Structure formats: structure tokens, C-alpha cells
């Protein structure tokens, strides 16, 4: 079978750290081109300043991975879908819910695969956590997601702009795991968002959710953590406590702890290949809906300015 | 056929001005009880301080209309659905999207009717506008929704709290019409929200949307309008201009203008009865999703304090 000829659009940190290695490591894909107005591309791979230019003048492509900031992603995705090109959306899949729903409708109509990728769902501990929780009664969930923004998002101005999500850029990873492993739907009951006086997006958030059986879920999300970083989800159940740590890579159950290697992006590209080969899409907006709910329902407090 | 025994929960302005007259005017319904901790109810109708009390001690009911502020609506609706009682949700259907989605799942599971009511969709001009637009190419849409908050929401503190939506409380009516009459999905591209320095919710918003064919939609939403009030939607098409005014009651087409009487709440209760008799639900979250998108994506500006 011919490989899937894929272009990577946006060559920032996430594209170089994660997407390009995952594509290089998967024989189903062949990297056909890169696109970025800010970059000269990779040795030996055709490079274009815009998706337009690639589609007009470049080699034929079957698929694109959109690794740009979310604020510009809708137009790129719509342009690709119009040409029958399959689309991989980095998280978050868009700057608004309604644009993602519009893209999903369009992909269904033209019969092209659209994949809203949630990389943390492919962390090694997540699938077994979901299986283990499926049969349990959930009593209480605690999420602590605390990291140092200066380490993980150095100089990324877009992330502080409207549509850039601020601390929800990492926080949505926790929500993508939460909505995947819990057996019942969850909804937000209240939230407090801490917004630096000189920025548009939150640097921290304190959130309360419930599931439809009444279990309380608390989330402590903070970008001001120096020293040890925390990406932990603890679920108390009628059969003991489950703990996912290191962003989902390490799973501790009452029976013992599993450490696994990081397979997130290889897992995403394997999934994307399956969707394309099977003529299907996978566009789950639940994590972004919970973030939108936090912005809609949350109380805002102003905190000290953040200087990069 | 026995009438549907209905209780009205929350006896504020909207319940007294709209719901009670519409129920009284529809022979399919019989008002069985009212619920409010702040009120003594109506002559001759059993009254309860809480829904709990009604469900434990009151007359049997088939349905409830929830006319409380949105922040407390989820628990009331969940409680009713659990007892097999059909639920009418005043707009907005909840304080978050995720709680409405959770209620919809639950209603489907227990086989009870849930109705997220959008009263403006039942304004007389809306159905013919939708029919007329179905065959047109939409070129441009302009929405002007300007009213005086002191006239329409006197002393309603909850409306300024997180989850109370502020100026989107009326604005969501325009969005419920827009999403109903346009033939294609729309999504938000950017928004500016004006928040009084002493409040949590916006007093005005300037918003830009597009539909999936690229038509530009502008919305000017303002609560500071004194004098004449505006609730107008103008749609320019390849076959001329459509104008809905007075909140959807008056429809002007190139062929002439129709003025009609207000049938919004009678229309809603006729629809609710049909849903119950047919064993179906109707829970469209599109209008609330666009509002959540405005909170998620919008730029906030601080404006002068609002004193009631």
C-alpha cells in the first residue's frame, strides 16, 4: 500500500519535538512537505511559506498535521478539507467550539478524515486506567496539574492571547484524560480563574466538577510551579485508589505500579493512519467544552503581572 | 386524554409574565403546583418552598417548568428526571454546556422528555424567515440587539454573576434565531466583551461570526440603550434583504412586511406537549455554545461600573 503523504504545517516546538519524530518512525507515513512562514524547513524536504502555496505548487499530499497556534487553525483545516486532504488537529482542536463543530460537519460531508488529537489519552497508563475504572464506583477525584510556564512555553505570546487558553493549554491534557477514563459524564460546577494583570488568559485555575452520579472532582491547575512538576490524577473508588502520574505515563493501582515508556505521538499517528484507512473521523470536543465552561461560568480574579 | 399536570419552579418575572399565562391558555396542561422559597404562590394552587418538598408531599406531577436562574437549574432538573418527571428548561438551559449535555444523556437513558426552550425561535416571523432563507445564498448578516437593562432586568443580581451571562441573557435570543434561520453552521471568529468594573458579566459585546460558506455575520449587543430599543436581524442574500425586527415578531421580505401577534410562550408549551406525548426530547445547545465561545475567545475590556 502506498504511504500516506503528509505535510506538517507549523514548525514550532511541538512539531519538531513530537510530530516530526513520530512521522519519521511510522512507515505508513511519508513526510512530503513542511509549511511555515517563519522557518526554512528541513534538509531535503520541500518547504513552503503557506498552505496555499503548497496546495498550488507543491507535491501531492494526502494529509496535513496542523501544528500552528489554534487561532489560525480553522482556515487551514477548511482549506485542506476542501481539497480532500485529511486533517490532524493538534490540541486544542480550535480556538472555539463552534469552529470545530463546523469542521466536523464539513469533514463528514466531503468524506475526509478529521482527527482532533488528544495526545495525553495515548499516555501509557491511560488505557489500563480506563479499563480498571469502568467497573468501579467513583467516590472522589483530585487532579493536580502544576508546571513552570517558563520551562514549557518560553516566549509563546500567542498562548496568553484570547483563544490561546493560557494555563488550560496544559490543563486540557488533564481534562482529556479525565473525560476518557471516568465511566460517567462530568460537568463543571464552579471555577476561579487567576488572570495576570497584563495578560488575557489565566495563569492558574481552581475548578470543581461533578459526575452524573454525584462524585466530586477537584482540579488545581497552576503555571507558577518551580522545582518539581506535578501532573497527577488520583481517583478514589470502592475498590481502592488509582493514581495516574507523570501526565498519564505512570499508573498505580492497589495491585502495583506500572512505569511505561512515552508512546503518545506514535500512538496518535497510528490512530490517524487507521482513521484514514477506515474512512472515519474522530472529533471529541468534550475537553474543550469543559474549558469553555470554565471561561463561561468561572469567577475571574486579577493576579500579579506575568513577565516572560 | 388526561391533562399534563405541571409545576412551575421559580416565580420570578418570566414565570409570572409568560409561563403562567401560557399554561393557563393551553388545555393540554393543568397547573398542579408552584415552587419558590421567596413567594407565597397563587390563590388556589398548592405551593411549596422547594422541589424536594413538592416531590415528597405534593400532588402527583408529570412535568416541571424550571424558571429559576440558570445557576441552580442542573440539580432541579436532575432531581425531576430521576423521578420520571418531564422537564422544560427556560433559556439559557444551564450555567454550563457540560451540565446540559449531562442532562440530555440522563433524559435519554430514563426515557423522559427534556426541552431546552428557545422562546425567540417561536416568534411569528422566525419560521417563515427560515423557510425563505433555506434556498438563498447568504451574503452578510447584521444583528443589532440593544436594550435598556434597567427596564428589562431591574435588580436581577444573579444575571451579573458568573453563570448569569450578563448581556448574553437577551443576546442568546438573537443567537437562537440566527442558528435556526441560517442554512449553514456558524462559528465565532472574534469578540470583544465589555465588563463593568464592578461586575462579573458583560454589559455589551461586539462579535464577528462566519458561516461555513464564508458569509460574515456581525452582532452588536448592548444593554446601555435608552430610548428606542432594537432587536433586529438583517440578512442580505442573492435574492434581496430579509429583516426580522421586534425580536422576530416582524418579518420584512422584498415582497412585503408581516406583523404578527406574539405567540412565543404558547408556541413553546404546544411544543413541550408534543414532545411529552411523542416520548421525545429537544435539547439544542448551539446558542449557548456560541456564547461560551465568546467567553472563551473574546477579548475583555473593563468599562465604567454599572449601578442598578
Q: Quick summary of this structure?
A:
Two copies of one chain form a homodimer. Chain A has 308 residues and is α/β, with parallel strands linked by helices.
Can you walk me through this structure?
The structure is a homodimer of 308-residue chains. By secondary structure, chain A is an alpha/beta fold. Chain A has two domains: 4-117 and 265-282, NAD(P)-binding Rossmann-like Domain (Rossmann fold), CATH 3.40.50.720; 121-262 and 292-303, 2-Layer Sandwich (Dihydrodipicolinate Reductase, domain 2). Chain A has nine helices and 15 strands. Chain A has helices at residues 13-24, 51-57, 73-82, 97-110, 126-133, 149-152, 168-181, 264-278, 286-297; strands at residues 4-9, 29-35, 47-48, 63-66, 86-89, 114-116, 138-146, 186-196, 204-211, 216-222, 230-237, 240-245, 250-253, 256-259, 299-303. In chain A, the strands form two sheets. In chain A, strands 14-13-12-11-7-10-9-8-15 form a nine-stranded mixed sheet. A six-stranded parallel sheet of chain A has the order 3-2-1-4-5-6, with helices on both faces. In chain A, helix 3 links the parallel strand 4 (63-66) and strand 5. In chain A, helix 7 (168-181) crosses helix 9 (286-297). The longest helix of chain A has 15 residues, at 264-278. The first copy, chain A, is globular. The N and C termini of chain A lie far apart (48 Å). The mean pLDDT of chain A is 95. The A-B interface holds A 74, 78, 95-99, 101-102, 105-106, 162-163, 185-188, 190, 200, 212, 286, 289-293, 295-300 and B 74, 78, 95-99, 101-102, 105-106, 162-163, 185-188, 190, 200, 212, 286, 289-293, 295-300.
